[in-house]
Amino acid sequence: MKNIIGHKVNSPSLPEKLEDFIFNDLLKNFQGKLPNHEDAKNEVGADETKVKGCLAKYFSGSFEEANQICQHLLSIETIKEIFKNKEEINILDIGSGSGGNLMGLLQCLKEKGILDNKKVKIFSIDGNKFAFKQHRRILDNLNFFNGKNNKKFIDYRSHLFANYFLKRFKNRENFQRQINEVASGKKFDIIMSFQFVNEPYNRKECKEFHPLYRTMAGLAYEHLRKDGLFILSDVNYKLGTRHFSQLMNSEIIPYLQKSERNLKCILPLSCAFWYEKCSDYDNCFQQKIFNVYYKNEGWFRDRGEEAKKMFKFVYKIFAHKNLAGKILSQLEKLEKKDIYKVSKTNFCYKGGRKSERDIPSGKQQNIADAFTLSSLNEQNEI
Question: How many structural domains does the chain have?
């Protein structure tokens, strides 16, 4: 990309070969329209054209989010050492779609040397056969993770095993039963769910699924290894009068506050350090913005659209109590603050929700981003 004087040129968010494979192969001759978030609410029932539209518009956002989350997690020495010393990594991806978050995670793990000489087993669960079709084709073409060294690609690919489970859920109990069936007898090093819960919550029978965020936390506790991580992410538009971040907090924080719970939050830091005193979780608005840049921006212009460059998500990361304690004790001296910025205009002050004008005088200079570890340079807006 040519640099224009006076303008910063950002590197593409996706690996070049991956972006080219998506836009020049998977989306070759695509004639459908690109969806907005209203169109994407029911991806389970989407046809192949709609799934391809979602691939074009949303894959990169999930990739960038998962990649950045992984970068932050591996900046914590305790987590990095645990994953480096594993002989095998088992990943459960609930609501995997076309695999954007999975590929972002794998890209980060590979760059950090975590995947070297390791067997990786992936268990992907989704309800759309067309999304799985794209997911499989991307996983089967992992050479975009490597340079020109084809032998390295062959060696790496031979260590990765993918399992696909086509599942459609009728209600929360049905969801819980089917996840338990897939996970039966297994323990996972990473359990993740990106942009999934909003879909059943947007159905007419949404009441049949509440409280699904809390149910997912319970399932993660049951099937997560003692040294594993659970990543729960979702979109952050409104459902009725409340944003999904408020719904997630209203279900997750009371779950964490029960003394017998052994699953603890490690990010965002506001929830990690102040969840016990959280007094306004029903209204707590949290949001992280990820900016995405493309090499193939012309692909969007040719279809009369601008490339989508900003994605708004909310996420939480959990670990079992003992591991969470080690991580937070390692972070506490550098990271624990009285006040955290949890979105552009919202703050958490010792577990209480504050707006910018409510911040106590003298505290403005000691505000930290709840989603960012200071050991990393901040690359995205909150």
Answer: 1
